[in-house]
Each structure stands twice: as C-alpha cells, then as structure tokens.
Fold each of these.
Amino acid sequence: MFPRRGVSMSWSDTATPADFVIPELVQLLAIAQRELDRHLRDHGMCTCCHEHWPCPTACLAAETLGAL
C-alpha cells in the first residue's frame, strides 16, 4: 500500500491522464474543457450565452476541471 524504502517512483513519459481515471471522467473533463473554450469573456460578458462574466456554465466547467 505504501511505497517501499529504496524504491524510486517516477512519472512515465508515456502516461496520459486517461491512464489514471475512468473513461467517464475523461469524457466529463473533455466536455468541461470544450465549454470553457466556448464561454469566453468579452468586455465583461460571455461570448457564448451573453450573460455577465463569469457565466454559470463557465463556473461549472471550471469547478469540474478543478475537482481533479
């Protein structure tokens, strides 16, 4: 369960985030990233839904990405 003494742990260059989480989470994170890419700030307003920035969708997407 715990690392043993004398054993070095290193990050693999070939490992991706998908190697550490279930496919459903990978899909959820991809959706959140797409939503953040769509809901951008422009003079205090959201470019997608035209609500005051940050809009609820951008907030929810940011919280989703921050949860991991």
Amino acid sequence: MKTKALIAAFIICMAATTRVYSFGVGGQLNFSAGEVFAPGAALVISPNETTHIAVNWFLGSDDRDDVNTICLTFDKTLITLPISTFSAGTFNFTLGAGLFTNFLLSDHDPGFNGGLRIPIGLNVMLGKNIFEIYTHVAPSFGIRFAPSLGLTKPFFPFALGVRVWFG
C-alpha cells in the first residue's frame, strides 16, 4: 500500500511540475566544423526552455580504420530576444553558454576532449510554442585529454534542428 501511495505521489508531483516547466525533445543535424566535432544526427533533450542536451554518434571511416565518435553537448540559453512576432509564432535570437565532450573510438587514434562553447542562434517558435525550428553556431574552445594533453584549435560547429515541446 505504501508503494502505491509513493507512486501516486510521484505521478502527482511530476504532473504538477510539467505544468510549470516545459519538456522538449527533438533532433538536429550537426555539420563538420573542424577536427574536433563530428558531423551527424543528434538526439536533443531539453528538460526546460533554457537547458539543452545533445547526443551525437558519428559512424564513419578514414583511410586506416573505422571511426566512431560520441559527442555530448550541454547548453544553457542565457538570452532570448524576440526579433519578430507573427500570427503563427515568434522569431528569436538566442545566446548561451555550454560544455562539450567528444570520445573518438578508433583502433589507431583514440581520443577524448572537452571544453566550452558559446551557442549563438536563431529559432522560430510555432503553434503556441509547441514546435521549434532552430539553428546555431557555437564557437568552441577545448582541451584534448587523450591521446596527449593539449589545447584544441578553436572550432565552430553548426547545427540545424527541430524540437517539440510538452507541458
């Protein structure tokens, strides 16, 4: 009986929370921007309107072997400025701060790096803020931890994505 009461309390708390906070899920295409960030499709999860987590898994090959790269980004939108409002929604400028990490899984050159990024973007919120189309470029600066310690060259990953918002 206590278990059912705890589950019911949890569901009520989650339902109450989702009315206050939005939850978004979507996908984005990442475009190559140098040697650090791999291109490819990413799953994007946004636990609220200002926090965005992207997981990108790139499968490819070079002239020596197969290469797999897992890229994770965590971005926080700090500024959203409406540029234009129209009958279907709003067009906005966004600016944020974030972190990235990349794991290169390769037989010859495995690697691991991470660092800071500054996402600068545009988005269109449609259908009473239920559907979002966005793009951003994120100047990024990082540290290579493996195979040797050092700084990465600055790079500028570019993404184009869509998100659906719930709550």
Amino acid sequence: MNRYLTMLLLGTLFVTGCVVYNVQADLPDAKTWRVAGVTAIDVRVDNGAITVRASADTVVTATVTKSCKGTSHADAEAHLADITTGDSISGTTLYLWGKVPTPNTRSYNTEYAIAAPAATLLRVETANGAVNLDSMAGAAVVVAANGAVSTVAHSGSISIEAANGAIDCDMVALDTAEAAALHSSNGRVTIYLPVDASFAFDITTSNGNANVTGFAGVNYSTNEAKHKIGTIGTGVAVVTLRSENGNVNIQAK
C-alpha cells in the first residue's frame, strides 16, 4: 500500500510542477534611419527569422517582432521584457541584434523584417530561423545555424553558411569578379542563374548528387556524380557549392 501511495504522491507532484506555456504574445516595433547614413547592415539574432527586402524609400526600416509564450496572454506579455533587442550605428554600418534567455523555455523569438536600398551590404546571422533576401544587389554574407536560407532576384557576391537547412539562391546576375559560395552541412544547395550566365564552378557533395542543368556549352574538367568542376561561357564569375548531406545544383532559368 505504501508503494502505491508513494507513486501517487510523486505523480501528483509531477503534474502540478509541469507548467505548460501554450499562449503566445507578440510585440512589433519599427524604427527608421536615413538612407544617406547607412551603406551596410549587420543583423544578428539568437532565435528568429530575418527578412531583408529592397526598397526605394528614403529611409531604412527595421521591424522587430518580439514573441514568447506563457500560461496566459497576460503571462506571456509580462515576459516579453525578457527579450533584449538593440541597434547602433558605427560609421555607415547599422547594427541590429536580438537576444533571448536561455534555456528558451517560453519559445522566445525575435523576427526581423528589414527594408533597405538594394545596394546595401549585408551580414546576417541567426542561430535559429530562416533567412530570406529579396531583390538585394549588394554583397551579402549569411550564417544560419538552424534554418533554411533563400534569395529572390539577388545580384552581387554572396556567401551562405547553413549548418542545418536547405539553400535556394535565385540570382538575377553574377557579374565579372563576383562569386557565390554556398555551403550546407545538412540540406540541398541550389543556385538559379540566367541561362546566358558566364562562370566557373566547383560543386561537391558527400551524400547526394552534383548537377548542372539547362546550360549550353558546359566544359568539365571533373565530371563525377558527386563532384563537378568546369566553366560555362568565359567563366568570369565563380560558383562554389558544398553539401555534406544533400544534392548540389546549378540550374539555368
């Protein structure tokens, strides 16, 4: 009998001590800076998606949405203050950051939506969250520890490191002396380039296939299932794709 009473007591303590956070609260906040004062943006967040899109506006706009969960909406709202966000300008570089508590028991999140001139230089880092660049034209560096990375109508050199997530990079152009270096440890890597693009390439995967599709006049120096090196056209730009687990693809559009 004592055994059953002990088990009942432990079970009761477990249930009463288990707090469920299932109600979310959100708090968006927008800030602007004069375009003339910003030529580069550096944004780094612990947990949250980051989107940067090209804008012809006279200001750079960053909207950060804090969110977290609680036992009620009031409880969740009360803990939004646990999240730290900030910004500063050094020279012509705008720095943005978001930090969340650890352990992240309340699903703390900081989602950034940024609008800036297309030619803005970018460095974007997130520990957990997707990254999307839309119609940007400046050199960009993206680091995503856990999350997919995508670009739409990008031009200019780009470097992407995705530890766990696919990379889909749609390019409008890759001009002379520009480069695209894309690497995912776990996920496919695909770059879409104009059918008349001219570039040298080196693409490889440990587990998957290496594919070059849709281009005329491909010249290979290495043409293996998992590794391809070669040139298309005069090879004035450089494309390097790597994946430890996933296909690597250069696709004409």
Amino acid sequence: MEHPSIKALRKIRVVHEGFNMSMIEHPEHPNEYLATIRDKFNTSSYEYPTIENIVYLVRLDSSFQVVESKKMEEPPRKRYESFTTGLEDCRLLEDGSTMTGVLLDNSEHWVPEMCLCHFDRVSHKIGKMIVFNTNTNSDEPKPEKNWLVLNRNSTKLFMLYSYDPLRVMSVDIETGDSHLVHFQKIFNLENCEVHGGGLIYLESERVYLVTVRVVNNSNYMFSMWLLLNEQYKMVGMSTGFLFSEPVDTKPRYEMCMSLLEKNGKLYATVSLDDEEIYVYEFDLNMILDNCMEKR
C-alpha cells in the first residue's frame, strides 16, 4: 500500500547500532539534534530475561550524522524477572533533560509500564524515574506502551494513551497518577490494532500531527497520519501509507518514534526491521493536504 502524494522528499541513513530513535532539536547546540537510540542484546536462550536493553544518548549534526554517542546509565533499582530488562523505546521531551520510556522488569506482572525519566546530558546518568499508574478499565486486552506527550504544564503531562478508542490521559509528573481526560471512537478496523508512533504540535495550524501504526495479528500493515485539534478531537486522517518500499509485496517492519518540524519540512525518525535508522524528510503542506479535512 502506498500514497504517492505523501512520499518522502529524501531519507537519510543514521549510522549507529540499534533502532527506535527519538530526536529533538539540541537545547544547547544550534543546528544540531539530540537523540536516544535503543539497542539490545540476547542474554540467554533458556531463561528470563532473554534480552537486555541499552539506551544511547546521541548528538547529531545538521546532516543527522553522529557526532557523539554515550550509553545512558540507569539508577540502581529492583528488577523483576521478565522477557526483557532495562529501559526501552525512550522518547525525548523538548527540554532535553526528560524522556519517557518503557519498563517490563519493574513488577512481577510481566506487563509494560511507562515511566518519566530525568537525566543529565553531561554525565549521561538517569536520575529519578516516575512510573505511571494506569487508571483505566481492567477489562482492557493489554496495557499500552506507546504513550505520546501532547503537552505539559508545571504539574502534569497530557498524553495520548490509546487510539482505538482514542484516549488522552493526564499524568502527574511527581506521582505518576493518571486520569482519563478525553475519549473518542475514531477507527472501525476489524481485527486490527492501532499503535502510537511520533507526535508534534504544529503552531501554525494549531493542531497535533500524529503517526500511528496499524497492526493485524502482530503483523505491521501500514501507517497513517492523524490530526487532532487543541481539544484532542480528531479533525483529519490520511489514507494508509508505507515509509519504505515493500519487499516482495510485504511491508518492512516500520517504527516511527518522533516528528520534528523545521523550515516547512517535517522530519520523521523511522526504524526498519529493528535494524536500520532513517530520518525521512517530507513536505509538511503535502501531508496536511492529504489528511481528510473534518474541521
């Protein structure tokens, strides 16, 4: 599946081990970028955890090439038996000193938990980690692990929690307590799941632009662009598309982790098959034009 009118203008390979890169403009170095990249290695084939995660804090130049990369250090904490150990799928916040991440080894329940992490860019050490408490219905099929930050104030994060249905949660940044603030049914996709990807607020349009992934029986199918207004209601949606060309008609496994706007261009960080990292450059107006207008 493809949508020719929203094809990327170009894609740039980021040469670094790992996958699932989140990127922001660097808070201290103009025309450079700050990123996190996840890597993993197998620890055992016969006992848990079988995978250990590593998070790198990476500085990129204006061409998205690596200038500096350091492994981040987690604080001491109790780790429970689980499929994997260590932080995974971190997403940087704009201040460049906090990020969200996923833990699977933080409890005995073998379920993913979101957390907010404070870190030091100089020492690359992670300090305080606040785990989110999900106050949603207990009959949900499984916990969500791709919460995306819409905006924040001095005490709360407002985050996209799920997409089918669309739920927005407020999260206390000190306690991690969360509460539902918006609910909307927007999809009618049979036997499919919708997962979060990247998100950015477009001041010129006063909307949030979101990428989501549609999955069927654990198989990635395609991505979509969504537009949400400032009250978190969906006001636009694109048709399904692929970032990369399929291989033998089958989509590659694509994961967009972040979006960044600069000079009328939109930059999406995308991993392919958990092996390669690319920055895709798009004409932002072309994407907006291809979202079905509902405002």
